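Lecture notes, part 5. Sequence design as translation. It can be helpful to think of inverse folding as translation between two languages: the language of shapes and the language of residues. The source text, in structure tokens, appears below.
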């Protein structure tokens, strides 16, 4: 996929999401260690570990969703599309804009309904603590909303770049070392001749 720049505030949000996920992961790690030590050494678990761990895992997993889109760290395969001409690539990019917008609207709307329902009914976990589930569902809702807004924005920017005759830069994370090696081999071959 292309490497499209995002405004600085969006990068700050991605950093905040990553930091939040990291801190929650650290808290989950401490909770798990305390639970295991408590069971092993004192014969008692930490009360509500299952409830808390479940909600933390959901929150941690989805906090990174929008950040992965912003940073371009998700999996993308452009093997087929790179072989097409600019016009075909622009058509495919336009189709992706429409599909992402429709899919995003449906998913975010559905998650909003689930969030509202959980809040109104006072939905809780089934274990001892009976923790409210709506905060985790709020994180899911906001993460998917931000993800789809960023994905559509990124695709619109790529569509515009292709329309203006430009070619979006491709991610060269995996190919950069290979390009360096091929350049070094060519230079070594020229020097030996």
């Amino acid at each position: 996929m292309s490497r499209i720049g995002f405004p600085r505030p969006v990068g700050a949000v991605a950093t905040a999401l990553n930091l939040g996920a990291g801190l929650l992961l650290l808290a989950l790690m401490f909770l798990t260690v305390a639970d295991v030590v408590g069971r092993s050494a004192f014969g008692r678990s930490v009360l509500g570990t299952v409830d808390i761990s479940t909600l933390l895992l959901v929150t941690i997993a989805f906090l990174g969703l929008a950040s992965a889109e912003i940073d371009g760290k998700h999996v993308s395969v452009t093997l087929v599309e790179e072989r097409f001409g600019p016009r075909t690539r622009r058509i495919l990019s336009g189709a992706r804009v429409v599909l992402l917008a429709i899919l995003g609207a449906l998913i975010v709307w559905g998650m909003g309904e689930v969030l509202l329902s959980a809040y109104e009914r006072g939905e809780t976990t089934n274990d001892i603590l009976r923790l409210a589930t709506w905060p985790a569902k709020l994180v899911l809702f906001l993460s998917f909303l931000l993800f789809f807004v960023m994905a559509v924005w990124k695709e619109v920017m790529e569509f515009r770049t292709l329309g203006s005759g430009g070619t979006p830069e491709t991610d060269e994370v995996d190919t950069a070392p290979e390009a360096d090696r091929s350049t070094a081999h060519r230079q070594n071959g020229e020097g030996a001749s």
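The translated text above is only one of many valid answers, since several sequences can fold into similar shapes. The chain is about 75% helix and 0% strand.
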